[in-house]
Design goal:
This protein is about 35% helix and about 15% strand. By secondary structure, it is of the alpha/beta class. It has one domain: TIM Barrel. Helix 7 links the parallel strand 5 and strand 6.
């Protein structure tokens, strides 16, 4: 349904450029904070609005989701059990915040490579250019998660296929994120899915448990080998039901960020057990505002050290006017 709205919205100006492999180019400059760190909050409309209302600060960006199969949640609201995705609402209300977008591809690799979703990818390109703000795009996020069942070679090819088509459409305001669940304690194994330096601007990791830190640090070493910055692309204190447990999680979390100089931090501020899609995971309530001690710890950490939404935010990320201008 969302793809229909996209088509209608852009029908008067939509130009689908012929795909030209020669337009493929090396990864561009990463949108890295000149100083401090960028804070992104996710991952659905109501969660984000509740965070802003309770914390009193609009974060630098919003973590949102769509799928290559339908592109839903971009131009019309959509909810598949994990919270309401409504990018149009958030982008309209908060013009000085950017987007971190997860592109779901599970069970869609063959269809991508056979061109069945070309219209959707073209619609995504038009939407990205229309935003005129920086976007971090996680193509096939958590590529190594067993549940996604991504064939490594097909994943590489599908990732590159999407990037090539977006570039052919003239998209310049996007950084491409290669996002690992950091579930494999073998750095060399990750490279089975790697689409190549020319297609990756950032390495991304998930961080749900302190037990992941050792594995995540190995992945960070891999990023350094490829001279790529690292973002925490998804994070939440999964299963930390007590205040003491969550406080301990945040201590490890902020220490990890500092020690590894993580420049973009994406936190999911959700009450997980209220969502049908996640209820069985028993991850608990990760909302900062749930407990005063955690709220105070959070504000102390992010108030001066993290970039929030502002008229100068894009400048502070070294985003030029040319990055936001499309042909």
């Amino acid at each position: 349904m969302a793809s229909f709205y996209l088509t209608v919205f852009f029908c008067s100006v939509f130009l689908i450029l012929p795909f030209n492999p020669s337009l493929a180019q090396a990864a561009g400059h990463a949108f890295i904070p000149q100083e401090g760190r960028l804070l992104i909050i996710g991952q659905d409309k109501n969660t984000i609005e509740n965070y802003i209302r309770n914390i009193g600060i609009v974060p630098g960006g919003f973590m949102l989701y769509t799928s290559v199969q339908s592109m839903d949640g971009l131009m019309a609201p959509a909810d598949h059990g994990g919270g309401l995705q409504d990018a149009r609402y958030l982008m309209g209300k908060y013009p000085n915040a950017l987007v971190q977008l997860g592109l779901y591809m599970k069970e869609g690799l063959d269809d991508v490579l056979e061109g069945r979703f070309d219209k959707n990818i073209a619609a995504l390109a038009k939407w990205l250019k229309f935003l005129k703000r920086p976007v971090y795009l996680r193509i096939g996020y958590e590529f190594d998660l067993a549940d996604n069942n991504y064939d490594p070679v097909k994943y590489q090819n599908a990732y590159r296929y999407i990037v090539d088509r977006l570039r052919a459409e003239g998209v310049k305001n996007v950084n491409y994120v290669w996002h690992s669940a950091v579930m494999v304690d073998n750095p060399g194994k990750y490279m089975d899915w790697y689409p190549g330096d020319d297609y990756v601007d950032w390495f991304g990791i998930s961080l749900f448990s302190p037990q992941q830190i050792r594995t995540a640090e190995k992945f960070i070493l891999l990023a350094k080998d490829h001279q790529k910055p690292v973002m925490i692309a998804e994070s939440t204190p999964a299963g930390a039901y007590t205040v003491r447990g969550r406080l301990d999680w945040f201590k490890h979390y902020f220490d990890f960020i500092e020690q590894n100089d993580i420049r973009v931090v994406c936190y999911i501020n959700s009450d997980w057990d209220k969502f049908p899609l996640f209820k069985s995971l028993k991850w608990g309530d990760s909302r900062i505002q749930k407990d005063q001690q955690i709220r105070e710890l959070w504000l102390k950490e992010i108030r001066d050290n993290y970039l929030q939404a502002s008229r100068l935010l894009f400048y502070k990320l070294s985003v030029s006017a040319d990055d936001l201008t499309s042909p």
